[in-house]
Amino acid sequence: MTAHLRNSTVGKFVPPQINTASAADIDALNSLLNDCATVMAAQGMQHWLGVYDKQSVAANVQQKAVFTLHDKQQIVACVALASTPADYYADCWPAATKADYYLTMLAVAPSCQQQGFGQLMVQYCQQQIPVGYTLQLDAVAHYPALLDFYRKLGFQQIAEGIGLDDKRYLF
Question: Are residues 153 and 139 in contact, defined by beta-carbon separation less than 8 angstroms?
Fold first, then answer.
């Protein structure tokens, strides 16, 4: 699947640009993450509600490699790569082998979903990881479309557990 964005000034389709997030992106990232949280909550998935405020988004931008995808001056997708797991990993999967990198904070604006942007962001992260290094991510069990998405990208479930009051799978 190839994702293309319309370049409004020229009227042509151009490859999307992925950038490294900066402090200037914090408000837009916060809006994107909370828009996604609201849509997921309406579908019965409450796990992102209250997770991302400006302070936590700023901490993510400082502590992780956060990447953004822009369309018409707006951030329409984001993802983060971390070198350490989320705090709940130790309780959720105490016996799991540690990875070199962890994928987190994958979000695509609700109006831009099903266009290949999530896949593009995950693949971009995979390309940032040196050959031979490992990548892990987790997903809540009650989000089957997301589980299928990760499996279609080649991720394999390696463990399951309870974290942040949700059943989660480690990939």
Answer: no
List, for the chain, all residue ranges whose pLDDT scores fall below the cut of 70. Answer: 1-15
Contacts of 16 (CB under 8 A, 6+ apart): 3, 4, 5, 69, 70, 71, 117, 120
Radius of gyration of the chain (CA): 16
The strand pair at 101-108 and 135-136 is best described as parallel
Q: Name the percent of the chain in helix, strand, coil, to the closest 5.
A: 35, 30, 40
What are the angstrom distances between the C-alpha of 106 and each of 14, 113, 123? 22, 12, 12
CB-based contact 61:14 (threshold 8 Å): no
Q: Which residue has the tokens 């992780």?
A: 64
pLDDT in tens, 4-37: 444 444 566 666 789 999 999 999 999 999 999 9
